[in-house]
Amino acid sequence: MKILIIDDHFVVREGLRRLLSRVPDIYIREAACPQDALVAFRGDRPDLVLLDLNLRNSSGLELLKRLILEDKRVRVLVFSMHAEPRHVVEALKAGARAYVSKSAPAEELLTAIQRVADGGHYVEREIACTLTRYIGRDPFQRLTSALEIDGSCLPPARISEPSQS
After folding, report:
1. So where are the chain's domains?
2. Which residue positions in the chain have pLDDT lower than 70?
3. Based on the number of CB atoms within 10 Å of its own CB, is 136 exposed (0-12), middle (13-18) or buried (19 or more)?
4. What pTM does this model have?
5. Which of 38, 65, 85, 129 is a plausible cystine mate for 134, CB 3.0–4.6 Å?
């Protein structure tokens, strides 16, 4: 699997490289800015892009949109310090396949990477729980199906089908 890591902090890219070195058959390329990211993306056509939303003097969200314009099949996992619902929703609406905060456990990031690499979607569990409070019951039902959120942060009554009144 080819992964492109786009983050303007060297220590984050190095940490991700070390974490991902545990995964067999992986090729990693890094970029610190959108210009380098686009060159790497065009040259390697990675299977997955790990993208930070905050890039020095640039917006990761704008880069996400640009990557999708380049290739509609691109699989982008946003890996950001922002866990607020508005950031998550913006990224998902822009075309990200997954969203994981930088405060998530390493194993959850690896799970998200595998899910996206397999063609699925993923939202960090803690973020998914926050989203349920942010967007309400009915939208969560649609979001649960679309993003494969397991709903384990909600009591069973909230996960069931809406009542017909």
Report:
1. 2-159
2. 134-165
3. exposed
4. 0.79
5. 85
